[in-house]
Design a protein that fits this description.
- By secondary structure, this protein is of the alpha+beta class.
- It is built from five helices and seven strands, in the order E-E-H-E-E-H-H-E-E-E-H-H.
- A seven-stranded antiparallel β-sheet has the order 1-2-7-6-5-3-4.
- Helix 1 (about 25-40) packs across helix 5 (about 125-155).
- The longest helix has 27 residues, at about 125-155.
Length: about 160
């Protein structure tokens, strides 16, 4: 992901990234799942969807937890939306973060309530973290698509 800039607003730092390619909802699900599985684990604090950017978030955490934290198994999240947000405590970065994905764009936003973290480490402190998420999500997306294609080709 390419760092686009960071700004502080009401005590939060908002960092914008641009993905390598435009993405859709399948990638959003894969990227959010990567964050949950590899970083938040038992420190997942929120999963929300919105129909479009600017619309009210619909919190889905209870439903996601009921599905074992598997987003694709949660009907209210698996259904395509315009925005997908995951919130939790990053065990990798050792701070609370929220990551927001916007369907059919290249935009990803990261929010952190710790401006001091950025003052100490610089605005691009999350670059490697975000790059890793993008790479792992593209690998997961490619694996899922390949398996689906193979199943269609060999239905028996």
């Amino acid at each position: 992901m390419v760092f686009q800039g960071a700004a502080e607003q009401n005590g939060w730092v908002i960092v914008e990234y641009k993905t390598t390619w435009q993405y859709g909802y399948d990638f959003m699900l894969d990227a959010a799942q990567v964050i949950i599985d590899t970083d938040f684990r038992d420190k997942l604090q929120g999963v929300a969807v919105a129909e479009v950017a600017g619309a009210e978030d619909m919190e889905q955490l209870d439903q996601v937890r009921a599905c074992g934290n598997h987003l694709r198994e949660c009907p209210s999240v698996a259904e395509e939306h315009g925005v997908l947000t995951v919130t939790g405590v990053s065990q990798i970065m050792e701070c609370a973060v929220q990551v927001e994905f916007f369907n059919q764009t290249r935009l990803v936003r990261l929010f952190s309530p710790f401006p001091q973290y950025f003052k100490e480490h610089g605005d691009q402190v999350f670059d490697h973290y975000m790059n890793s998420i993008e790479i792992m999500a593209y690998c997961k997306d490619t694996e899922r698509r390949t398996i689906e294609k193979m199943r269609r080709a060999n239905p028996g």
